[in-house]
Amino acid sequence: MENKVLRQVDFKLGRVFEIVTGDLLTEKTDAIVNPANSGLVHGGGVALVIARAAGSSLVQESERLIELLGNIQVGEAVVTTAGRLPFKGVIHTVGPRMGEGDEFTGLVSALYSSFLRAHERNWGSVSFPGVSSGIFSVPPDICAGAYLEAVSSFWKTNGDSTVRLIRLVLFEGPLLEEVLGLTRGWKTVL
To answer: Taking CA 117 as the corner, what is the angle to CA 128 and CA 151, rounded to the nearest 5 degrees?
Structure first.
């Protein structure tokens, strides 16, 4: 079954943000975002699903990156191969855990960094799931606001970006309802 667009927000200069329900791994974008931990250990949640589908090349490249760079800090993002997945790459970003302080800013930074990694590679589209909303326990209202701020601020400061399509892929639930509520009435922005 194809992913379903629930809301489309048009940004100026042909840029589009879509809120989608469905499966992140079936997206037709250039890259997907993995909500990673600082050691790029893909042991649970979305990260484990992505790692299993991508295969050992993604895991091995993640291990090499950690050996080279050390742990990835909250708000940062790195790129690996997509392995067996049909993407040009997987962008791994580390969002904040609830209780670390200023979760909103950390989450905006994590997603902004993800979009910037796509831009640096001249990719045109990226899909991301609920970052920090699962085992990291950041509440839906903080996540939803941060996701929208990250998309808006990225395009506001990167008007020439090759990234023309950003898709937020969620399952039914409180986070999706929060995002849809915040974007109710949005048509064209920026």
So the answer is: 50
